[in-house]
């Protein structure tokens, strides 16, 4: 049989597909970060905690109120977005005029508080959340066994990512958003409620994180530290893609998933570091990121 | 000049005070101080972590809070599974806070680093959480005890049982550091001795988030057995992913080489049923284990892992040794601990060997089916006892410098 790079094609295709699935999570999370950074100029370090909250809301819902997965997929992002909006209205709002660093410190502090209190009450070992009945099982693709749920992750995250991109780049609301990023004062002069726009944007970014959290709940343990594990990688993805670039975040997320997947075949020991290596190279060659505009 | 004289005087006085203290063979600083070092919030925190600290506190309280009239105190610290952080913390504990004994200790990499510090400062460490058999083999020191289990015991318990049932070709998922390497090496030896072979393996970084890629490689290998030479959250994530990708349905079997009660509880019986594992302790084995575990449960809301039970037993054994030696001086206490057999809810006739290995009976257990379980924590049935002299590496094979004739 023909071999690609010394590996049978089945193995390689399988790994690429797996990479795409992990990339879907990176894409969803970095998209949220990019939107928030683009409009609010806030580096949202609480993103990992909000992803974790999404998974926990789904778990709470199932355990105590019998809320099923499909409802949780809508409900959890709304609940977590409401929390995010409360944070924006009471805390973040005061920091827009200050240096980036203040927003970073505030959200980082919030993340530590949220994660710390969840560790206190739930421990770190993780709560079980089972795959919904409709998505159990899987198909043998010939080169690998693909669990239905993993296929669903790709579909769901691509739909949400490109839906978001379309909304921002092709609709009137998106045009307001982009205008708000460029010149908020001028936009306000046209009678647009910019503070509300900002609040909703933060809520939406947070909702994306929570959505990814619910998607992750059945395959990763629902644990208070699940967010901090993934957040650092996602930040690297955003830096590679170019801060604030919507399409850059999505494409880079998927791409990094693929690169990580390949590394797991060729040199698994480096699989957690490879993204940072890419980041270093990109920063050296294109400091604004792959899709960022040179300042 | 006057200043210098004063300084000299105080130096002499304090030196005299120190030497009289040593001669009297009493308790240094009028307190027995224990430091509890573990991963308190990461991958390995469920199996030892805050629960282990609580177990150590229980041991001190049950001892009456005092030994020979001197107060016992305990402090805890999070090593974050990082050897440099653990070693620095322990150095600071011993230099500044006069810690006499270090308990807990989970990640093998941290333990090996800390044991070097403890040896250089001539204090005591009792390792309950770590697995690497190298801790009492090539890395053995006269100041350290390895208390609960090790990779040799796990490999011979679980590994042998699996090979005997026909699992003669293996693929390893190995955590890429001291423990994973030791585990893989010990099991490989067992597999080869029993006539099996190892067809491949991957080494993954500690605390890997997604195992699907590695499970896929294991499936492609065609091995009969997928051996998990990892621990804690890495093991639970591997098992979850293996179930999702239908590893068992496709005809492969999984051998979890280091599985804790807390892992099985968190995964649920649906995922773990039928897994065979080696353990040093199970709460529902005897009336004594049940009685102690019930008290532990009331304090922590969870049943103890073998590590948490072992931490209580080891702290208790240490305090007993301090009491009968009449001092917390290292040599005297170590001699007393090695001389006295351990008989409590945790171990029967446990014995600390010259290489620091505490040998006691281990148990081969199987995870119950959901239909067999009568409660949240009714998780194992004990298949057989592995006697102490069979469970651990015999001294005749030891590379430890302390063993006579090495």
UniProtKB/TrEMBL annotation, chain A:
InterPro entries in the record: ABC_transp_permease (IPR001851), BCAA_transport_permease (IPR052157)
Membrane-protein topology: Multi-pass membrane protein
Stretches that traverse the bilayer: 12-35, 42-62, 68-88, 100-122, 149-168, 189-218, 230-258, 265-285
A GO MF term: transmembrane transporter activity
Gene Ontology cellular-component annotations: plasma membrane
Localisation: Cell inner membrane
Keyword terms: Amino-acid transport, Cell membrane, Membrane, Transmembrane, Transmembrane helix, Transport
Signal peptide residues on this chain, from the entry's feature table: none
GO BP terms in the entry: amino acid transport
Pfam families membership: BPD_transp_2 (PF02653)
Family in the record: Belongs to the binding-protein-dependent transport system permease family. LivHM subfamily.
Protein's recorded name: Branched-chain amino acid ABC transporter permease
Source species: Oceanospirillum multiglobuliferum
UniProtKB/TrEMBL annotation, chain B:
InterPro entries: BCAA_transport, Leu-bd, Peripla_BP_I
Any one Pfam family match given in the protein's UniProt record, by short name: Peripla_BP_6
Organism the protein comes from: Oceanospirillum multiglobuliferum
Family note: Belongs to the leucine-binding protein family.
Superkingdom per UniProt: Bacteria
Record protein name field: ABC transporter permease
Keywords: Signal
Domain Leucine-binding protein: 31-368
Residues in the signal sequence: 1-24
